[in-house]
Design a protein that fits this description.
Layout: H1 7-21, H2 24-29, H3 45-55, H4 59-68, H5 71-80, H6 88-96, H7 101-110, H8 118-125, H9 131-147, H10 153-157, H11 160-166, H12 172-186, H13 190-204, H14 209-222, H15 225-245
């Protein structure tokens, strides 16, 4: 779509295409997942991803799509923006406009965790009062644990106190974000698993209902045979890789 008119016209064309791709079934189904559908068309995630792939990376178009405010347009914006060019100011601006968990998670999962500012934004956002900004901080942390192959264990160990401090927050989307971050850190390495399980056990014994819920769920998952096997496989792959380099 590059070169097909001004950026505003290109954004209008994408929005028009999203409208054509919408289905009433998808729109009605959004409510089941607590995604507001009052400013949405009803386009499936896989369909939006296919559209974004066809568009390619386009930072200016991403900004114009975000400005429309439509749920699907903002989702596509996150998929086509250029992470290496995203500024801290843009991250703050978009975070203030998340509005629901789905936009929050998509932006963090596909865009923000690939920026060089991600860890710094985790530290900032997890202390914010706004529900979706705070969730964004923990979702961003969870995504970093899943995707950042270069970050050290120490970087994530330093974030565990942030999880412990926020664990008592009863708000549903914050609580689930905190839980996700703890579980993803615990899946990253044996050392982080041990530290995360220790924290989860403390939370499981807490007097705070939200902290107990987070802790019990994390203990159950992080001590499961499935996670243990996955960590053992990681260690084995790392050892094999190291042996090849010698």
């Amino acid at each position: 779509m590059r070169g097909a008119g001004s950026i505003e016209e290109q954004a209008e064309a994408v929005v028009a295409q999203l409208k054509k791709l919408a289905t009433k079934r998808t729109l009605d189904g959004m409510a089941r997942y607590a995604i507001p559908n009052d400013h949405a068309f009803g386009v499936a995630m896989a369909t939006m991803q296919a559209l974004a792939k066809g568009l390619g990376r386009n930072r200016e178009l991403a900004a114009a799509l975000w400005q429309t405010g439509w749920y699907e347009a903002r989702t596509v914006a996150a998929l086509i923006d250029e992470p290496e060019k995203v500024s801290p100011a843009q991250m703050d601006r978009w975070a203030r406009e998340f509005g629901n968990w789905a936009v929050c998670d998509t932006v963090c999962f596909f865009l923000f965790d690939r920026t060089p500012h991600a860890f710094h934004k985790v530290e900032q956002w997890v202390s914010r009062k706004d529900e979706y900004v705070k969730r964004g901080g923990f979702v961003l942390l969870a995504c970093l644990a899943a995707h950042d192959k270069l970050a050290t264990d120490d970087a994530f160990l330093g974030c565990l106190p942030l999880i412990e401090e926020a664990a008592a927050d009863e708000r549903n989307f914050v609580k689930k974000g905190v839980s996700w971050a703890l579980r993803m850190i615990g899946r990253r390495s044996p050392a982080l698993n041990a530290a995360s399980v220790a924290l989860a056990q403390r939370l499981a014994d807490s007097d705070e209902p939200a902290a107990r819920w987070i802790g019990k769920g994390a203990v159950r998952e992080l001590t499961s045979p499935t996670v243990k096997r996955a960590l053992e496989a990681k260690v084995a792959r790392a050892a094999k890789k190291g042996a090849k380099k010698k």
